[in-house]
């Protein structure tokens, strides 16, 4: 396709035409500079779902349990050990002693009770409170023992408690900062402490000097070897590449895929990867809005978009074209659902629209009952969204559908996408199983965010509830398979690509391994050192 080739040529020119810069002033020995494409809207772990928040919060906090590098094995965290009652409803966590917050305050069971209760509180309005499970009560039995009681079993509780939302924070700091917690300060027990934040520019962390309780999957349990970490926002991909190659920066997982092959040949840079990684890009539709409420239009969009060509043009082959909602490598993936997703076939897309009564208008946009086939799409202003939105826009126009696009800076985009002022959105997200992915987006209680599609189906809710409380894996698999097949038929979003994880590291930094939990490339960084 001519426009796909044009997009590829333009991207190559934008990134690879930048010359390697001359040597620059080196970063101080005990400082490591991480680069990223966008900033977070805030660093309140209970009020943000952004990966850019999680990659920093994960360094400032600890969780009761942690996830090993295989993406499956649960390891100790702030809890040295735990037990589960025979009915699967009560988890008893035995906490580490000698743990302190960044301000020196001693960590106790009361901090766990406060943090989890704040996470699930209606006042907090966390969009991911469901991840804490159907909580009945969180109790401090004594200073170092917590009972976590559920109303019903939740088979994925321990996995959910490894995510950054479950980090333990200090109540006094939250009370002191109020709504400014996570924007003007933070206090956790993690290996790094909040120093400063300049939005859209950089966030600085300093080493927690008393930290000695890191997860066992690291050789170093603390304190961290590196004294200072700078998380710097650099939106331009060519600038990120130049900084990594010249030593002006040290680590980034935000590598323009067009440059990945050439970057691997640079002797001063290593590229890390992680196969146990699930991160999908999608175009979601508000199913109760005009045009988007017509299943025929949604299915025609699937038929009009060439996802294989899209991945070649946008990700340059360093991603996988997607079909249905769930990655085939994820737990409880249903293969039959993939066969039910409409395949790329522009002629079939035209027939689908014709049969549904959408007739071609004089301006090339279809019309039905006086309604033009046009919709407004929001998204975060990233390189991937810029490219894929333009390509999809052109592919849809060829079958008579008009897609209008507005992309926003990340600091405001999350707020805009929590509204009802748009019809569709570009977004990407991480998950670790089918149950995790489907619970995040498709329960009616998750409206208006993260269920931005406004999906409200009692049968979906019933299947989700059955899967979450199932103690029999076969029952869980069946319920989740039913949802995957339902969504394949209804087409409430178009999964465009499955991202691979790549982390570029300069040769002045050693000891890093790519992790990937919730899409986060580097987790804790306790083994990280600088060579100069």
Describe the structure.
- By secondary structure, the protein is of the alpha+beta class.
- It is 29% helix and 22% strand.
- The chain has helices spanning 2-16, 51-60, 109-120, 157-160, 171-177, 237-246, 260-263, 295-304, 307-314, 335-339, 346-355, 383-397, 410-416, 434-442, 458-469, 473-490; strands at 31-36, 65-67, 74-76, 79-84, 90-95, 135-142, 145-150, 192-198, 202-207, 228-233, 251-252, 269-273, 279-285, 319-321, 359-360, 366-368, 371-372, 374-380, 402-408, 424-430, 493-499, 502-506, 509-510, 529-530.
- A hairpin with a 2-residue loop joins β6 and β7.
- The chain starts with a helix and ends with a strand.
- Mean pLDDT is 93; it is low at 1-14 and 16-24.
